[in-house]
């Protein structure tokens, strides 16, 4: 029936009615908090060490002990998981600190699992934070990333994370074939129950700028457009996700999130797997800067952004807003 019989405003007239018919739910248990763990900050048991990141207000580089404290707070707020990024004390051409059994992510993973056993620990599997050239894999003599040689090292890294107690490993490098290689390596080493969250549709985005400062991972030469996706391509994102599913991914991811809602939906429908959306550093920084200037209400904006990602089809949202959002949702 048409107006005046049909009046959609009837179900918007009170908070109780709006809540009754609300289509999309946002919960703290759907959020993942990224943490930057620095070897320079000290090992477990030392005094807390925190280094603010200028381009990401409220986010810090953490020592292992400080990361454990953050994980404990996140767990108390109901956040589902933390996602660990490592900043090693030393870097080399291969990124060998990435698979060091005593590396910063491995030590931090074990420390968090001891302190907060029920909190999920997801580990980022990539070489960019560990290589002295800043690329996500090893370089050939011609300066291009060697895909297959890099895949072998990524698999070693994933196994070392699983051995340290990681609940989920998350390859973010965008090398072809890395999900299958990681699945095979995990299975061979007795970690057949460790899930893979694949950064399946990771775009060569301008929104990563603050992260590269935070993780000290900007390429020393060239860029990552030869392996990360062209932001103009949507069908290719679905193809990437489907290939990762064939190789054994248990979850897939779209990154960035805010400008890619159409692809979150497309990947969800194509794969029928749990889909993660990464609300990345540039998206976070924009909201923080606008809120600091008084242009936006931070709380309302953050919750609207995160709800929009759920509405698009994201089952999991990785966001630097996770702790604040969890507090606001509990009020």
Task: Summarize the entry for a quick read.
With 331 residues, the protein is of the alpha/beta class. It is 38% helix and 15% strand.
Task: Write up what this structure looks like.
- This protein is an alpha/beta fold and 331 residues long.
- The protein has a single domain (24-330), classed as TIM Barrel, CATH 3.20.20.
- The chain is 38% helix and 15% strand.
- The protein has helices spanning 15-20, 64-76, 104-115, 147-164, 178-188, 209-214, 235-247, 261-271, 281-292, 298-312, 322-330, and strands at residues 31-38, 50-52, 60-62, 81-87, 120-125, 168-171, 197-202, 251-255, 275-279, 316-319.
- Strands 1, 2, 3, 4, 5, 6, 7, 8, 9 and 10 form a 10-stranded mixed β-sheet that branches.
- Helix 4 crosses helix 5.
Biggest β-sheet strands, sense, barrel: 10 strands, mixed
CATH topology: TIM Barrel
Radius of gyration: 20 Å
Q: Kindly report the name of the CATH homologous superfamily.
A: Aldolase class I
What portion of residues is helical?
Answer: 25-40%
Give start-end ranges of low-pLDDT stretches: none
Structural class: alpha/beta
List the helices and strands and how they pair.
Layout: H1 15-20, E1 31-38, E2 50-52, E3 60-62, H2 64-76, E4 81-87, H3 104-115, E5 120-125, H4 147-164, E6 168-171, H5 178-188, E7 197-202, H6 209-214, H7 235-247, E8 251-255, H8 261-271, E9 275-279, H9 281-292, H10 298-312, E10 316-319, H11 322-330
Parallel strand pairs: 1-3, 1-4, 1-10, 4-5, 5-6, 7-8, 8-9, 9-10
Antiparallel strand pairs: 2-3
Helix pairs in contact: 2-3, 3-4, 4-5, 7-8
């Amino acid at each position: 029936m048409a107006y005046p019989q049909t009046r959609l405003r009837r179900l918007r007239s009170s908070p109780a009615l709006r809540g009754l018919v609300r289509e999309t739910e946002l919960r703290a248990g759907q959020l993942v908090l990224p943490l930057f763990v620095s070897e320079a900050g000290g090992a477990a048991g030392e005094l807390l060490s925190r280094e603010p990141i200028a381009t990401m207000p409220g986010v810090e580089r953490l020592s292992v002990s400080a990361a454990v404290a953050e994980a404990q707070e996140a767990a108390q707020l109901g956040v589902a998981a933390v996602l660990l990024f490592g900043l090693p004390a030393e870097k080399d051409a291969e990124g060998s600190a990435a698979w060091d059994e005593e590396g910063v992510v491995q030590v931090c993973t074990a420390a968090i699992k001891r302190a907060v056993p029920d909190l999920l620990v997801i580990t980022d599997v990539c070489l960019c934070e560990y290589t002295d050239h800043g690329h996500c894999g090893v370089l050939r003599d011609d300066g291009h990333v060697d895909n297959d040689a890099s895949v072998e090292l990524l698999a070693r890294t994933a196994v070392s994370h699983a051995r340290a107690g990681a609940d989920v490993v998350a390859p973010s490098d965008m090398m072809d074939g890395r999900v299958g290689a990681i699945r095979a390596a995990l299975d061979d080493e007795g970690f057949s129950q460790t899930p893979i969250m694949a950064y399946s549709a990771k775009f060569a985005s301008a929104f990563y700028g603050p992260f590269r400062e935070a993780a000290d991972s900007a390429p020393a030469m060239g860029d990552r457009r030869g392996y990360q996706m062209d932001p103009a391509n949507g069908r290719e994102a679905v193809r990437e996700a489907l290939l990762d599913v064939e190789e054994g991914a248990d979850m897939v991811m779209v990154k960035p999130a805010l400008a890619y809602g159409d692809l979150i939906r497309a990947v969800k429908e194509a794969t029928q797997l749990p889909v993660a959306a990464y609300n990345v550093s540039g998206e976070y920084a924009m909201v923080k800067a606008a809120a600091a200037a008084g242009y936006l209400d931070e709380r309302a904006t953050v919750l609207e952004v995160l709800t929009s990602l759920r509405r698009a089809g994201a089952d999991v949202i990785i966001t630097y807003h996770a702790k604040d959002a969890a507090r606001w949702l509990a009020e």
